[in-house]
Amino acid sequence: MLLRLDDEDRQVALGECLGRALEGRGRVYLAGELGAGKTTLARGVLRAYGHQGAVKSPTYTLVEPYELDAVRLYHFDLYRLADAEELEFIGGRDLLAEDCLCLIEWAERGEGWLPEPDVRVSLAHRDDGREASLEAHTPRGDRVLARVAASLGAHGLAAEGDA
């Protein structure tokens, strides 16, 4: 699924749409170069569960936990990870539990240690906006993307080629 995101509001809207579709569980890898909008998308996912505060990328702490009603969400930023094994030392296996929602920026730095994502969102700069490519990697991810596709119009979004 390929989406054009003309501004930050649309990026947040996509995050909210994705957040609702995830239903509080799963693993999402957020890929893209610096400044592509990974943390902005994470802010939208968090808003889907009622979080109204600031969302910062946990670049130095590696993970930022959020307890939101019945949802345990962990926002990882692995940009400064020196070795994937460091995830073991911060309790990564517990944080990546099946009953949690994990958003992982720079997941390639945890390659070989991290489990397969349900969904990978790749963000890229395009003209004066962004482009998001969503790809399912598990059967759960297929169901999530089907829910996202079904609700795009309600969030003011359209897939590339839809007009």
Q: Any overview of this molecule?
A:
- The chain has a single domain (2-137), classed as Rossmann fold, CATH 3.40.50.
- Helices cover 29% and strands 27% of the residues.
- The chain has helices spanning 8-22, 38-48, 86-89, 92-95, 139-151; strands at 2-5, 26-31, 63-68, 71-77, 101-105, 119-126, 129-136.
- A 7-stranded mixed sheet has the order 1-7-6-2-5-4-3.
- A hairpin with a 2-residue loop joins β6 (119-126) and β7 (129-136).
- α1 (8-22) packs across α2 and α1 (8-22) packs across α5.
- The model has no long low-confidence stretch (mean pLDDT 87).
Keywords:
about 160 residues; alpha/beta; Rossmann fold; 7-stranded mixed β-sheet
At CATH level 2, the architecture is 3-Layer(aba) Sandwich
Assigned CATH class: Alpha Beta
The spatial strand order of the largest sheet comes to 1-7-6-2-5-4-3
Biggest β-sheet strands, sense, barrel: 7 strands, mixed
Mean of all residue-level pLDDT scores: 87
Number of strands: 7
* CATH superfamily caption: P-loop containing nucleotide triphosphate hydrolases
> What structural category characterises the helix and strand content?
alpha/beta
Helix content: 25-40%
Shape descriptor: globular
Unreliable residue runs: none
Strand content: 25-35%
Number of contiguous helices: 5
The domain count comes to 1
CATH topology: Rossmann fold
